[in-house]
TrEMBL record:
InterPro entries: GH3 (IPR004993), GH3_C (IPR055378), GH3_M (IPR055377). Residues 447-565 form the GH3 C-terminal domain. Residues 360-431 form the GH3 middle domain. It comes from Arabidopsis suecica (Swedish thale-cress). GO terms for molecular function: acid-amino acid ligase activity. This is GH3 family. Transmembrane segments: none annotated. Pfam families: GH3, GH3_C, GH3_M.
Length: 594
């Protein structure tokens, strides 16, 4: 059933006026992709062709897309860093955008170890809001009755900082939850959350999580959908319940809030929610959560009316699907949107489809989109328009935004799966150059290499060297953590590195990783201590033999710097001689290092 046919179908429940308006908007956007894209780029150029950046490329006064495409280069973040830095330092002249940059959104993508800063202008909030407003009308076509209950969403704000020039720098969702649009959102029966704003907005993630879980438990029969932005967040909430259910049950049985909650705004709002003891509910939670070895289907046991999980399980998050299936007893997982700090991109028009079939339809009004054919040497290939991409092909997403990113490589690889009207639909294939990811952290090969180098210096005193390494994102435990396999060349066999030295190596690796990793370790506690597993000598040669036996070429064989294939994991794990964990937290502060 498409949005269009649903609009006309006599068998579907009749959508509300608000939903009809949203669905019509989707129809209009997807039928006129190229027309809308032309309009968007014309409008962006009308505003921004007088900016310092576009004038530099001779675009002064031009508003047509052909001139734009021939004159303006395709760039990466590092190309734009000087301009971004000037704006961050307080230069208010028209550098990238004719509209004032109001804040920087801190991407989970990093450059030189620090989060990338994405410029944004005031009206971008409305564009994001518009995309959000399309989600429920689409969902309502597939799941009726969502106005009859609530959504238990685990939503969090993160620490924010200010640039030297005084602009806020914070993640896009923190910016959104703190906005008036979110805080003063009008009542909408389809978007009633169990979590009070005060809990979502509490900067202490532990108090925030505790309160959100408590509210979810108190309103367990009203909960119709359960979610977090990414799968890792929802699993973290389950992990939190695992360690804290006794305290939560105690609050419910006494009708009082735990002393761990010190935030005055939360206390005030909870005084209206946790009003009286409920021994029956406390007993129920104790009986269900107390079965340590039987948490299978816990979500449906506690929240029996849940119709689906609202959580992104595409891209790096696909690794969490089996665990979510386990805890939810196989509930559908809806991946509703595809977005980033640079711009929000699109929505899933079939949100109840299987995770492996998810495709996102880019909304052509959000930004100007171009597509760089993937795996074709740059320079030899033309960028393709949104309306002209071909089914089956893979592309890297390139965007031009109202806020002043011009032909910017997002770093996402997408594959065209089909069309809805004239709008192409994309499967998220992967993020370029990402080796390891537990939640929003994205560690690339160069970062891992540097971390191994820095850590192995600590072995140098004993003349021991790391001769090979590979890595693995261990996500079966909550929180997940990085595992690094090391094969060592120990000079003095009688004196191999002891656990203390190896543990210091673990910590040194963590210190060397990017700020998103360290923030997740320190502030969010969403990544556990890094682990080094030392393997027996000759293990990496066996790994090569295995790859060659499966058809790899001897000449071209390279040690994979990240592994996930079960037989390889089994081989590595069967050769482990010792394991070591980081003994402390690495350094992290909201301030940037540079
Ligand atoms: P950030 O800039 O930190 O907001 O991260 C944005 C990135 O997260 C995108 O460029 C994608 O790589 C990834 N992402 C966002 N939405 C999805 C999705 N629905 N599926 C897979 N990856 C996603």
């Amino acid at each position: 059933m498409t949005v269009d046919s649903a609009l006309r179908s006599p068998i579907m429940h009749s959508p509300s006026t608000k939903d009809v308006k949203a669905l019509r908007f989707i129809e209009e956007m997807t039928r006129n992709v190229d027309f809308v894209q032309k309009k968007v780029i014309r409008e962006i150029l009308r505003r921004n062709s007088e900016t310092e950046y576009l004038k530099r490329f001779g675009l002064k006064g031009f508003t047509d897309r052909k001139a734009f495409k021939t004159k303006v280069p395709v760039v990466t973040y590092d190309d734009l860093k000087p301009e971004i830095q000037r704006i961050a330092n307080g230069d208010r002249s028209m550098i990238l955008s004719s509209h004032p940059i109001t804040e920087f959104l801190t991407s989970s993508g990093t450059s030189a170890g620090e989060r990338k800063l994405m410029p944004t202008i005031e009206e971008d909030m409305d564009r994001r809001q518009l995309l959000y407003s399309l989600l429920m009308p689409v969902m309502n076509l597939y799941v009726p009755g969502l106005d009859k209950g609530k959504a238990l969403y685990f939503l969090f704000v993160k620490t924010e900082s200010k640039t030297p020039g005084g602009l806020p720098a914070r993640p896009v969702l923190t910016s959104y939850y703190k906005s008036e649009q979110f805080k003063r959102r009008p009542y909408d029966p389809y978007n009633v959350y169990t979590s009070p704003n005060e809990a979502i907005l509490c900067p202490d993630s532990s108090q925030s999580m505790y309160t959100q879980m408590l509210c979810g438990l108190l309103m367990r029969h009203e909960v119709l959908r359960l979610g977090a932005v990414f799968a890792s967040g929802l699993l973290r909430a389950i992990g939190f319940l695992q360690t804290n259910w006794k305290e939560l049950a105690n609050d419910i049985s006494t009708g009082t809030l735990s002393s761990r909650i010190s935030d005055p705004a939360i206390k005030e709002s909870m005084s209206k929610i946790l009003t009286k003891p409920d021994q029956e509910l406390a007993d129920f939670i104790t009986s269900v959560c107390g079965q340590d070895n039987n948490w299978e289907g816990i979500i449906t046991k506690i929240w029996p009316n849940t119709k689906y999980l609202d959580v992104i399980v595409t891209g790096a998050m696909a690794q969490y699907i089996p665990m979510l299936e386990y805890y939810s007893g196989g509930l559908p997982m809806a991946c509703t949107m595809y977005a980033s700090s640079e711009s929000y991109f699109g929505i899933n028009l079939k949100p109840m489809c299987k995770p492996s079939e998810v495709s996102y339809t880019i909304m052509p009004n959000m930004a100007y989109f171009e597509f760089l054919p993937h795996e074709v040497p740059t320079g030899k290939s033309e960028l393709v328009e949104l309306a002209d991409v071909e089914v089956g092909k893979e592309y890297e997403l390139v965007i031009t935004t109202y806020a002043g990113l011009n032909r910017y490589r997002v770093g996402d690889i997408l594959q065209v799966t089909g069309f809805y009207n004239s709008a192409p639909q994309f499967k998220f294939v992967r993020r370029k150059n990402v080796l390891l990811s537990i939640e929003s952290d994205k560690t690339d090969e160069a970062e891992l290499q540097k971390a191994v180098e820095n850590a192995s210096v600590l072995l140098g005193e004993q003349g021991t060297r790391v001769i090979e390494y590979t890595s693995y994102a261990e996500t079966k435990t909550i929180p997940g953590h990085y595992v690094i396999y090391w094969e060592l060349l120990v000079k003095d066999q009688t004196n191999p590195p002891n656990d203390e030295v190896m543990a210091r190596c673990c910590l040194e690796m963590e210190e060397s990783l990017n700020s998103v990793y360290r923030q997740s370790r320190v502030a969010d506690k969403s990544i556990g201590p890094l682990e080094i597993r030392v393997v027996k000598n000759g293990t990496f040669e066996e790994l090569m033999d295995y790859a060659i036996s499966r058809g790899a070429s001897i000449n071209q064989y390279k040690v994979p710097r990240c592994v996930s294939f079960t037989p390889i994991m089994e081989l590595l794990d069967s050769r482990v001689v010792s394991t070591h964990f980081s003994p402390a937290l690495p350094h992290w502060s909201p301030e940037r290092r540079r």
